[in-house]
Amino acid sequence: MLSPVELDVLSEEDLQLKNELELLVERLKESNDNLHRPALESLRTLIRTSTSSMTSVPKPLKFLRPHYATVTEIYEGWPESDNKLFLADILSVLAMTYEEGKRDSLKFRLKGLREDPGSWGHEYVRHLSTEIGQEYEYRQENELPSEDLMALALEIVPFFLKHNAEADAVDLLLELEAIEKLPDFVDKDTYARVCLYMVSCVNLLVPPDDVAFLRTAHTIYRKENKFTEAVSLAIRLGDYDLIREDFDAAGELDELLQKQIAFILARQQISLPIEDDKIQDILNNTHLTKHFIALAKELDVLEPKTPEDIYKSHLENIRPGFSSGSVDSARQNLASTFVNAFVNAGFGNDKLISIDDGNAWIYKNKDNGMLSAAASIGLIMLWDVDAGLAQLDKYLYSTEDYIKAGALLAIGLVNTGVRNENDPAFALLSEHIEGAASSNMRICTIVGLGMAYAGSKRADVRDLLLPLVSDTTLTMEVASLAALSLGLVFAGDCNGDITSTILQTMMERDDSQLKETWGRFMGLGLALLYLGKQDAAEVTLETLKAIEHPLSKQVAVLVEICSYAGTGNVLKVQNMLHLCNDHLDKDKEDDLFQAFAVLGVALIAMGEDIGAEMALRSFNHLMHYGEPVIRRAVPLAIGLLCASNPLLNVLETLSKYSHENDTDVAINAIFAMGLVGAGTNNARLAQMLRQLASYYHKEPNCLFMVRISQGLLHMGKGTISINPYHSDRQLMSPVGIAGLLTTLIAFTDVKMLILGRYHWFLYYLVTSMYPRFLITLDENLNSLPVTVRVGQAVDIVGQAGRPKTITGFQTHSTPVLLAHSERAELATEEYISLSHVLEGFVLLRKNPDFMEEVKD
């Protein structure tokens, strides 16, 4: 009851209401049945019409609370009748303010008249849905039937959807494990918000709910004929039958829409056999080079740059007489070869090699340096197969083995990311697999094939390379690189033949061979087959336990991190951090698996912002307390986590690590700075690297790495990114991840590989290189300049109304460049975009309803 003090506080109206309610309760106690119905009607009216502020309990509920026990007793005492059901409904509402945890609201609701729950207001419906979730869990544990709960939930879902509470509707069906019923309730007004919420939840759900959410959202998009959104989800699911189905259905509806989907698939390097030549050209990425050169003209960056333009040595403050070039000229020239290749990548011209006197530059390098110099032509001619092969032809007849080998690698580089109906890469490279004159040529052929056909899942490439993996008479180097190339070609395919062959080879090889540095690449080839496939790798992991060699533990970590790449799976991240706990004695036990575990933290967390932020914090701890092997891997992991995304705090951290006493940590940190800034032209980072160049001017290895990072920073003169995420950071390119990871694994033995004879491992980055442009095309696939707004992307999941999706925008005319966290939208309604994300190639169609403003 209310205390006398509280009674004094009540206003006259409240007192009157309180007395009225108490009178109605008294009426219910009476034995005369005729008084009950009007009393119940009055109670219902008073409860429903009461208004309250957001923070207080409605007055009728507050005043009736002391009488809750009394009314419950009255209910128990009444015989079965309509009045009793009516009273159950009222009790269900009153129970909201009474004891938590007893689920009385739901109990009385199920006994009541079952009229529309929405008529009692939004708060009541939310309360009910909470209790339904709790009750369902209780019944599942005790194996009780729950059909009545499902029926009630399906009454509540339409109410939620109608009242802008899409998230509550989705959550309720998730708790009842019935998310597949959602498409029946969604319509054209609610689908966008529902799907946006569902897709943003995927990273936070445990399997199999995450796949169920993607499939349900896909069904909703298909129902609403939103094909580009549906295809994006089918790609995330990795379901090729679903992709094909969406692609064909879009073609029946609208030919132009099918072309837009082809562009999305081409970006992900998914090839579908199709009759239409125009669409096949799009899927083959044939348009890429033409539009990339057009973009360069538009941005006025077609003019080739020399390495010196990048280094800006005159800004390095080195004392006279200590010129940074004099330390180790072959090493300097090698650095300039890579810088020249990365900076002019895709432009088809440069000032060192593709000129008439290009041979002179190649001969300025020594041995394997010549190999990398010849191969750099492939990077400069990237995506332009015809011109590239014409340029490379003369080098294939060179008398120098190294130059010939480099040219073979260049053929692979030129063909990366594009397909050609004549298949020149396979024709030119396959003949050198068996009859190669030298081991270098054979290795470059194997690596070239892996790059050229990355992600294509070509059976003929498999038949060519598999025998090299299983032949135990070959060196570990050849077998491991063949396995790695197969991993790239069949990334995320779970191919059984390749898996069994690699595992068999690992069992048959001598321990001494498995100990070699190359063993890790055989493991990586196996791991890439399971990229993003989660549980599919279980059998392989079990098999690895049977191999009694330290390599099996390394490979098991690689397989596990690849299978959960980009999923944000918290348990797997914890597993990896747990592996880093042990302080091992390097002489007695192999500790390399810990380095892979550190990379794994980044690889698993990179798909999701919160996870990525937490991973960065964990790296800080690992750097403080970890063993040397862990500390060397931390900068690499940071580079992977923030590829082409130069966040200020990350740059500061890496800058600190780049001055470490342990040169391996410093070298990896310098390279990570290049990865983090790749293709961004970030001025602050350029300044940091110039300072490092003067700091390390007497350390040839560190200086070499600084130069490489300067080349990466200005990749494609600031037009190319290596971030494997695209389409508004929703889709992960398996090939992009594979290339990045391969390069980083090479850095786990930097002295032998990158600073030794195998610096060409840096070229593996090519599979993740892609222009960060937005190019708008008309219906004939010609460039169509329109005005777009480009700004920082804003997360609008669950926000009310129509919030802005970008902030702090600038208006540009296409083609434009987009940074990692930026998003674009059309500035006018003159055209309709056929893609839901403005990124890469976007087809536009004239808006028939557009009315141009009349200018005075």
TrEMBL record:
Residues 797-850 form the 26S proteasome non-ATPase regulatory subunit RPN1 C-terminal domain. The keyword Repeat applies. Gene3D superfamilies: Leucine-rich Repeat Variant. Pfam families: PC_rep, RPN1_C, RPN1_RPN2_N. One of its GO terms (cellular component) is nucleus. Keywords: Coiled coil, Proteasome, Repeat. Signal peptide: none annotated. GO terms for biological process: proteasome-mediated ubiquitin-dependent protein catabolic process; regulation of protein catabolic process. One of its GO terms (molecular function) is enzyme regulator activity. InterPro entries: 26S_Psome_Rpn1, ARM-like, ARM-type_fold, Proteasome/cyclosome_rpt, RPN1_C, RPN1_N. Residues 7-34 form a coiled coil. Residues 21-316 form the RPN1 N-terminal domain. The keyword rRNA-binding does not apply. Belongs to the proteasome subunit S2 family. Acts as a regulatory subunit of the 26 proteasome which is involved in the ATP-dependent degradation of ubiquitinated proteins. This is 26S proteasome regulatory subunit RPN1. It comes from Gigaspora rosea.
